Automatic annotation (TrEMBL):
One of its GO terms (molecular function) is metal ion binding. Keywords: Hydrolase, Metal-binding, Signal, Zinc. Belongs to the metallo-beta-lactamase superfamily. Residues 97-292 form the Metallo-beta-lactamase domain. InterPro entries: MBL_superfamily_lactonases (IPR051013), Metallo-B-lactamas (IPR001279), RibonucZ/Hydroxyglut_hydro (IPR036866). Residues 1-26 form the signal peptide. It comes from Rhizobium rosettiformans. This is Glyoxylase-like metal-dependent hydrolase (Beta-lactamase superfamily II).
Length: 326
């Protein structure tokens, strides 16, 4: 017994220096044992089907900001806006705005709806659309049509890359009213001047390949435009329909899944005609709620797809689950 105890004690004594040595090494080479690894991850993507149409959503990026009331509910007090956010388990003093361009493969056309922030956003970790398309197996050359829902910078920033069209084989579709407003020299000297410059740089060079549509205009079979003015003078949304399934791409009709939907009458900083935008929100989301249609909103929480149900003052956002998988 004494011999066994002695050998056991010797084993512990021999092991102890080894353990201490490993600890010492870990302290000296903290970088080698750290879990703070710089992963080169592609942007988030999400793929699902609407009938025979394949829909791919790409997260072009996300941007956190302070003071939600300076953007949403600008005609409300900060306390009122903060209280609604907190009631929905969100912080009262911060919000995150994400950007979700959409690719639709109909089988005969590959249609991209909006192009994100492009090269101008990359310094801030944005402008990742092409990267996401590549990760999902699409090349820039595959895109046959680019649809521009409206011409704010976060939707047209990815049209050009290094002074050349990003999608070299594409034709372009946009609303006539939207284009006419932004290229008009009358924008110079107004709050819309920067937007005017962005359109001259990114959109106007593509005008020869552009088709202009209005309410009810068809992009291709199964893809129809709908006027949804207010957020911008010619803001358009698009209905996809295939094999009895439907999805409405609502673009910027609503910009926040709580503040814009639960209180559609609240004013939004980036809505150019605030009264018209509020009326459009109510009209569009009443339709979606009544007809129980799925929608994809450009600034909704990624993957930006869901439904709405009518509640007392507005609508409740219900994120998509497995509805399109069965």
């Amino acid at each position: 017994m004494k011999r066994r105890m002695l050998l056991g004690s010797a084993g512990v004594a021999l092991a102890a220096p080894m353990i201490m040595t490993r600890a010492a090494v870990a302290q000296q080479t903290g970088a080698e044992t750290s879990m703070d690894i710089d992963h080169a991850m592609p942007p988030e993507t999400h793929r699902f089907n609407v009938g025979s149409f394949e829909v791919l959503v790409v997260k072009d990026g996300a941007r956190p900001s302070d003071n939600p009331q300076e953007t949403f509910g600008t005609n409300q007090s900060p306390e009122t806006v903060g209280a609604l956010l907190e009631a929905n388990f969100l912080p009262a003093d911060k919000f995150v705005n994400s950007f979700a361009p959409v690719l639709v493969n109909t089988g005969s056309d590959v249609i991209l709806f909006d192009t994100g922030l492009g090269e101008g956003g990359r310094a801030n970790g944005l402008g990742r659309l092409v990267e996401g398309l590549t990760a999902a197996g699409y090349k820039r050359e595959d895109v046959t049509t680019v649809v521009i829902t409206h011409m704010h910078g976060d939707h047209i920033g990815g049209l050009m890359e290094g002074g050349q069209p990003t999608f070299p084989n594409a034709r372009y579709v946009t609303g006539q009213a939207e284009y006419d407003f932004w290229v008009d020299p009358a924008r110079v000297g107004t709050p819309a001047e920067n937007g005017h410059k962005g359109v001259l740089a990114n959109v106007q060079p593509l005008a020869e390949k552009m088709t202009f549509i209005g309410d009810g205009g068809e992009v291709v079979s199964g893809v129809t435009g709908m006027a949804a003015f207010g957020h911008s003078p010619g803001h358009m949304i698009y209905r996809l329909e295939s094999e009895g399934r439907q999805l409405v791409l609502t673009a910027d009709t609503a910009n926040h899944f709580v503040l814009s939907l639960q209180r559609p009458d609240w004013e939004v900083r980036f809505d150019m005609d605030k009264a018209a935008a509020a009326a459009t929100r109510t009209k569009v989301f009443d339709m979606l709620a009544t007809d129980k249609l799925a929608f994809l909103g450009y600034h909704m929480p990624f993957p930006a797809v869901g439904f709405v149900e009518k509640i007392d003052q507005g609508y409740r956002f219900v994120p998509k689950a497995y509805q399109f998988e069965i």
